[in-house]
Each structure stands twice: as C-alpha cells, then as structure tokens.
Design goal:
By secondary structure, the chain is an all-alpha fold. It is about 80% helix and about 0% strand. Helix 1 (about 1-25) crosses helix 2. It is globular and about 90 Å long. The relative contact order is 0.07.
C-alpha cells in the first residue's frame, strides 16, 4: 500500500512530464540528450518551486486562526505552485505534488489539528467531485471520439485490439520493473543487517556529547569541532538507518508483494486526461484518445474486478500479530509517557473532586485554566515526539498514524470546551 500510494503521487506527474517532452520532441528534430535535458530541467525546477511554495504555504497558514480561511488558502496552493513552474518551462503538476508533499509532512508540526481535519474533509470532497467529473466528461466525449475514430481509422474493433495490446504492454513494462524490485530490496536489507552492529555502536556513542564529537571527527575531514546540531543530525540518520533495518527485516517484500503491485497498477482518469492534452494537429489524435480511454476502462474492469480474488489466492495464511502489535503500542506508550514527564508543569500535584467542590469558584477557574494549559502542553510534546519517531521510521506507520489521530481528537475536544486557557 505504501508503494502504491507513493507512486500515485509521483508516477502520474512524471509520466505527464515525459509525455510533454515526447510531444515536443516529435514536433521538431529529435535529440535524445536534448529531450533528457528538457525532462531533467522540468523536474528539477518544479521540485525547487514546489518545495518553496510548500514552505511559504505553511509559514502563511500557521499565522491564520480561522480553519475555513486556512482551507480556502490550501485550495490555491496547487495553482500558486503550478503557474510559475509552467511559466518557466517546468512541470506544474510536479511542482503542485511537491508542494503538497512538503505541506503534508510539515503540517502536523505547524497547523493545529482542527485546521488539518478541515483540510482533510474538504479535500476528500473535492477529490471525489473532480474524479467523478473527469469520468463524466469522458463519457460525454465518448460518442464524438468513436465517431472520429470511425472516420479516421479502419474501425472501432481494430482500435480496441490496439488498446488491448497497449494494456498488455503497460503490464509487461510494469512487471519488468517491479519483479526485480523485491529481490534488490531483500539484498539491500541483508547488507544493512550486516551493518546493524556498527550502527548500534555508533548510536551508543552518541549518548555522550564528548564521545559523539570524537565519533564524528573520526569520519570527518577538517578541524571544525562538531556542534550540537551536527550531533543531532547524525543521531537522526543513525535512528533512520536502524528503523529501516528493523522494518525490512520485519516485513520483507516477496513475490506476493510484487504480484500485487504489478496487478494493482490500474490506469484511470489521468491516462485519458493525458491523451487529451495532445495538440489538435497530432496525427491520429482521435485514435490515441480512444485507445487511452479503452485502456483505462479495460484496466479498471479487468484488474479491478480480479485484484480481490488474486490477493485472496496468493496471500499467505494470516499469522497472529497481536503480540507484535502489543509490543509496538507498548513502546509508543513509553514514548508518550516520557514526553509527558518532560513537560515542566506535568509534576503539579493532583486535586481531588472533593477539594475542587470545597474550593472558591475563582480558585477552581484558575486551576482549570492551569490544567488545560498543562494538558495542551503535554499533547504538543507528545505530538512532537511522535513526529520525530515518524521521521526516524522507528514505528509502524499505521500504528503511529492511529495514535496521532487520537492526540488530535483529544486536543480538539479539549479546545472545544472553551473557558480558561483558550
């Protein structure tokens, strides 16, 4: 699922850049290195513009207190990223994707949970409406596309055969790339596992400041004394390396995973939309659009209807992971407890219900204000600890996301109570 989610973000954008490069090359004298240079320029510049827009987006939205206004600004971000990128000859779609990635990674650290909840709900609605609209437009244009194919080509049935062949080619190309992937990842995991003892030793040396500085200077040229920031960066890389080793040893990819990734790579609205960006003067344009439409439909029908039975057929017998999940959650609870205890006000003495009932109302309000502020500080510290663990890759992503959602829900409920401390 992580592979499929990731490629849905990046592969479509990269494919559209390749299509634009190929279209431009076909319209003029073709130069392989010129096409490679155009592709690299379009991607690199788009990444830089998208990253800058993503950071600027967070800097602006962090200062806005209204969730609806914040969400409205988020609707403009893809255009703010894509329009300058297109103006300078880069890929607007890649720029928009990068801006979204930067926003998604940094938003939990910058934006309050109610703003992120508003974003998620509204963007889910927009996504559903746009996807439905694309397929609706596809259906409305189908009659004219079929008519154009019949006029310009030998007929619809031969075009369908071309589409079927194109679908087979796309699956073959996908398999040629994906099939060696699990093997290379397993080999990488074995090499990393062989380095685990060395990485563990490095991590133990980073606990002491002087020892950490000596360890860094052993592998660094020059005489500059490592700063605390250098040590923190190295510690983060070491934790990430250990997290990667643990992950690939716990969940290695095999032939079942490769088969699932190959067959789950279905074509859809982007395929048809890409074909419709071809210039009007493109030879056999109607045929190309029809083939793209037919490939998308055949892919969604054939692969979509069989992916469930296929996975049930090849899936191994389900093992009991309750003990493993329990250990993962126990480590998370310990992390949350440590973050809570690090908050300065966390050691305030508890107050019983009887003491509150007997206290003066003004004292009760003051205590409630302090308690709410304390609890919000604890939630912020716990969220920071979880996000650091996410960046280091030391916990299961689904378990971590579940705990983060629980923290967001608790903070939203606490803030909705109003009163002191708001």
């Amino acid at each position: 699922m992580a592979i499929l989610d990731g490629e849905s973000l990046l592969n479509d954008a990269t494919a559209l850049v390749l299509l634009r490069t190929a279209t431009a090359a076909a319209a003029a004298a073709f130069s392989f290195w010129g096409a490679v240079g155009d592709f690299a320029f379009a991607v690199v510049l788009a990444v830089l513009i998208g990253a800058a827009v993503g950071l600027l987006n967070l800097a602006v939205r962090a200062r806005i207190t209204s969730a609806p206004v914040n969400t409205a600004i988020s609707f403009a971000v893809p255009f703010v990223a894509s329009i300058p990128a297109e103006h300078f000859g880069a890929s607007g779609l890649v720029a928009a994707v990068v801006a979204g990635l930067v926003t998604g990674i940094r938003a939990p650290r910058v934006l309050p949970p109610d703003h992120r909840l508003s974003d998620a709900q509204n963007w889910s609605t927009i996504e559903f409406v746009l996807e439905a609209a694309v397929f609706l437009v596809m259906g409305l244009q189908l009659a004219s596309i079929v008519g154009a194919v019949e006029r310009e080509h030998t007929g619809v049935w031969s075009a369908l055969l071309i589409a079927l062949g194109a679908l087979v080619v796309t699956l073959a190309v996908r398999a040629a790339y994906v099939v060696p992937l699990p093997r290379s990842l397993r080999a990488s995991a074995r090499r990393s596992a062989g380095m685990q003892d060395r990485v563990e030793t490095m991590r133990s040396r980073l606990d002491d400041l002087e020892t950490a500085r000596a360890a860094i200077q052993e592998h660094r040229r020059g005489r500059r004394i490592p700063t605390a920031r250098d040590i923190e960066r190295l510690g983060s890389r070491v934790r990430q390396a250990l997290g990667d080793i643990a992950y690939f040893r716990k969940a290695p990819l095999g032939w079942r995973d490769g088969t699932a990734v190959v067959w789950a790579g279905m074509r859809g609205a982007v395929t048809v939309a890409a074909a419709q960006t071809l210039p009007e003067g493109t030879p056999q344009r109607a045929l190309l659009v029809f083939v793209a439409f037919a490939v998308a439909v055949l892919s969604l029908v054939l692969q979509g209807a069989t992916i469930g039975p296929l996975l049930r057929r090849i899936s191994p017998r389900r093992t009991d992971t309750a003990e493993q999940d329990s250990g993962e959650r126990q480590r998370l609870l310990e992390l949350l407890r440590a973050a809570s205890e690090a908050v300065p006000t966390a050691g305030e003495s508890a107050v019983t219900r009887e003491e509150l009932a007997a206290a003066d109302p003004s004292a009760v309000r003051a205590w409630l204000g302090r308690e709410k502020a304390r609890r919000l500080a604890v939630l912020r510290a716990q969220r920071t600890a979880l996000l650091d663990a996410r960046d280091d890759g030391t916990f299961d992503a689904e378990v971590l996301a579940s705990v983060l959602r629980n923290l967001d829900a608790e903070q939203i409920a606490l803030e909705l109570r109003g009163g002191p401390g708001t």
